[in-house]
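Q: Structure tokens for this one, please.
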Amino acid sequence: MSVAPQRQPVYRPFAVTVAAVRRLTPHFLRVTFTGEDLDLFGDTCLDQRVKLVLPLPREEPFAHFPGGEDWFRPWRELPDQRRNPIRTFTARAVRPHLREVDIDIALHEHTGAGPGPAAAWAEQAAPGMPLLIVGPDSRGDSALCGVEWRPGAARRVLLVGDETAVPAIASILEQAPSDLSGQAFLEVPTPDDILPLAHPDGIEVVWLPRAAGEVTGERIVADVPPALERFPRPVAETSDADFGIDEILWETPESDEHRRYAWIAGESAMVRAMRRTLIGSHGWSRKDIAFMGYWRAGHQEC
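A: Here is the predicted structure, written as tokens:
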């Protein structure tokens, strides 16, 4: 009698500790994590989403966090005092042979409410501190779990994001094929937050540092639309600009037949405005745009 192979988890918690903390710029912090089983952490990267499970203020900070792949529903059902805060980030680099994962954290300017839980944790992170990362298991069934960058056959692309999307865009560009062309627009808080990025020669990288008094997304909304004229307009294509785009904050196309492809992520109002511009003013099909509202201004998302 044959025994069926055991199904491996796709997306599960990994117990880690902080190995190193490095301030990249005034508003970017890189935290390197290590863990005994990080050799099993999926290394697709690109815009790979992972979740940081933040500690509760007690001697056993993760005592009540559910283990295994089916952690989400039990976590939601925990009482508030036992439910660890969770925030979503991008796996900036994965080194399975060293059992290491890098997470780059964008530190927002503090509002009157103070920093969110992830920013507060990051600003006092030090080697040896424990954490949980929920991420892909390389033995799982889907190598693309949590990856939204899927340009298919498109060779002309547009990437747009604020500082929260910079780690994902940087990772995407590092792994992009050499024949890819297009533009990447990255808005950051200050000129000192511009980072060196590897990218194909055909991709023009445009950094948009905000001026004093400008709000997140303002530079993107002003500077990106003129560049869209470089993308040829569709022929005999019906615009779907009125199909509820104001209400949608996350939509990623599944088609592999993109003629051109846009990936837009960051503050929700900016993402909504850019998608309205692409579809309503420039005739893009919603099937060729991945857009993701990572956070909302005025909410303690990070």
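A few notes: The two ends are 52 Å apart (CA to CA). Residues 236-246 have pLDDT under 50 and may be disordered.
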